[in-house]
Fold:
Amino acid sequence: MMKTAFRAAMAILALTAPAQAAEVEVKMLNRGEAGMMVFEPALVKIAPGDTVRFVPTNPGHNAQSRPGMLPEGAEPFQGAMGKEIAVTFEKEGVYGYDCMPHYGMGMVGLVVVGDPSANLDEAQAVKHRGKATGRFEALFAALKN
Structure:
């Protein structure tokens, strides 16, 4: 009888415990599956409160938010060159980011937090240069699938 009561109590505690936020790792690479100068994975879908850890596996990279590609009220972020940065995303929506020195080479990515509709249209309307244009178009297309 005591074991049954103990198990029941533990089950109730497990169900009422706060959910643990997740952490996702994104690597900054000179070469990856998608080619030269990439983030892997370049498209990350998470829940509000989750963290993305951007890890430079090669020197000379950083991760920073793209102007115009953040939900309203979200804080922009900018990692130092060659340094890891962990960003906790609280607001739902689409966050575009890039590597400052390799943006024109297409080193970009998207973090989608919960429901992307909060700023999806605004994020897609942002103009880009170089290979960043095509990579963002491919990421938005992948988001719709």
